[in-house]
Amino acid sequence: MCEGEARGLGGATVTDNGLAWIGEHWYSSAIAKDGMRADISLTAVRGVDPVDFVVRLGADRAMAERPPLFKDFDRLSVDPGDSVAMFGRGGEWTYVLEVERSTWHLILLDRLGQDALVGPGEELVCLDRFLHEHPWVCYVDAAGELSSGEPGDSLLATVVPPEDRRGAFAALDLHMRRAGAVRDAFPGCDDPGDEDEELAKRLFAAVGEHLGLSLPRREVELGLLPAVRLPSPV
Fold it and tell me: H or E segment at 133?
């Protein structure tokens, strides 16, 4: 049991927030036959057409324009290093969901830059499960500035503090603190083994509220969203 775990932003239950349910299973290895339930990596970008964004990530445009549902995608035919992603739009945000790691993050690492991935004035958030390394949180604001860290880290208290000319990092950091998603604001758990999962749940809740983004849990878990293959950049 974690102190205050049933309460989220604005006094609502954490599980009622738009993204908190992803955090509930981030570390659980929960199995979904046709869709995704655990180890989900989320990439969300504001103001970009969903097809255009997955094409930036390497998808074939013709396939992305007429995609199958994730549950119907022949995932066994995809090379092991590639990803089969669900994608869609929620309000102003295009989102891409992958299991175990984010293609956006891999491309960023491979190219050592973000110009080809995030255009001028675009805003991006990535919550990467990154199974083979530490999970990762990244925010690129509309000015092209980037702040990143691990779950529980502040976006402002980094080794090289971001310039944050638009105040975007401070705004998300405030949501994270109010949700107890930053370690120095985290209320703690009776069992230390529960802390990573609780931090993830609070992090996803804070990001969902800050972005105004809610994902359809049933459709994700049952694989009822469009899917596309994203080739590995590495």
Answer: none
Q: Are 69 and 227 in contact (CB under 8 A)?
A: yes
Average pLDDT over residues 42-70: 97
Residue 205 and residue 9 in contact, taking contact as beta carbons nearer than 8 Å:
yes
Q: What is the pLDDT of residues 90-125, one digit of tens each?
A: 999 999 999 999 999 999 887 756 567 898 899 999
Q: Name the 3-class secondary structure at 42.
A: strand
Give residue-wise pLDDT tens across range 167-176.
999 999 999 9
CA 179, CA 186: separation in Å to the nearest integer? 8
pTM for the model? 0.91
**Can you tell me the distance from the alpha carbon of 228 to that of 56, in angstroms, rounded to the nearest whole number?**
12
**What is the per-residue DSSP string for 138-169?**
EEE-TTS-EEEE-TB--SSSSSS----TTSHH
b/e string for 172-195 if b means 16 or more Cβ within 10 A? bbbbbbbbbbbeeebeebeeeeee
Q: How far apart are CA 174 and CA 180, in angstroms?
A: 10
